[in-house]
Amino acid sequence: MKINLARCFFLFSLSAALAPCQTQALKPELLAVHRHYSGKIGKGLDVEIDLSFYPDGVRGVYLYKNYRIPIILSGSLEGKKLELSESSSGEFDDGKKTGIIKASLSSDYSSLSGSWHSPDGKRRLSLTASENYSSSVGFDVWGIDANFLLEASDPESPGVRYAAQALIPRGMPSLAANFAKELYSGSSPQAWLATRSAEYLKDYRQEMEPLFEDDPESQMSFTWEKNINHDIVYNYGSILCLSVDWYENSGGAHPNYAQQYRVFSLESGKPLGFFDFFRAGTEERLSELLTAALKRQEGLEPQSSLEDAGFFVKELEPAVDNFFVSGSGISFHYPNYAIGPYVMGPRTIALDWKSLGPLLRHERPFK
After folding, report:
1. How far apart are CA 233 and CA 275, in angstroms?
2. What is the reported pLDDT for 137?
3. Please, are residues 9 and 230 in contact by the beta-carbon 8 Å criterion?
4. Strands 124-131 and 138-149, how do they pair?
5. pLDDT at 23
6. In what order do the strands lie in the sheet with 323-326?
7. Which residues contact 124 (CB under 8 A, 6 or more apart)?
8. What's the rounded mean pLDDT across residues 88-112?
9. What is the number of other CB atoms lying within 10 angstroms of the CB of residue 119?
């Protein structure tokens, strides 16, 4: 099971739709501030907490330093009173609700204090935490939500919507430079958001406006939608993992969606690839581990055939350009069509540190 980091984003909506034949500069907006805290639950449970503060609520993740498995957080902030529900999100569990956090934030958001409660309210442990970026990083979250209606005067008119968010690291110029290069086509996140949204709306108008004018009653779909989001998966121990999620529906047989994971060093700011973690010549053994893990995940017998189960492949090769790191190990992601038909959906295969140990360049590739 893939780590689920609550991919519901609170995107700022531009209030004005583009009028027909009008060219308008699209302006990204600051959506949220992402902060990292270090602290304790109870007397001796060290925790690392990532929180993104949106106008509509708070979302994030935290982990116990002894285990380093992310736990989802989501909730509200009223004044400086924070209330968050948590649910487990490790690769091997079902995401059940595991507790509630109630805390007060300092006036500058640099610290929080309160308590952790069990779901039934029978257990209560103190919680204190302060901002700390010694082995993690904070972000500003920018976004854009642009739309165009084929009939501007009709709110029910078919049209196009492009919504996206981007992350800007704070206090790490080298990481920000590599984000621009690796994620934002060499430009700033704000410029990337504005350019991509304008291009998408322009493509839609060039293709759909003539068709709609010729036959507005056509049974074809005149509605397009695209969403792109950058989500923080892991932000600790000098390792940063991001998920780039996109969804697009342009009137085809079905929508398309995918996730692309990226890993960065928080020491150098540089992107990390497959061979930064794995020794050369380990691909065959890793393929064996991944194939066995996929069969277990699918409830197949070890000697069974993946092809007979509907997959395109006999063995699962490492997704060398689509993996992420967590406290429990390394997970490889296979999007739609990578190893099976669309109807089967994507697959994420997690391997723990113990099984990966002999294949790694280092025992664990983080502090």
Report:
1. 20
2. 95
3. no
4. unpaired
5. 37
6. 323-326, 329-334, 347-352
7. 115, 116, 117, 118
8. 78
9. 14
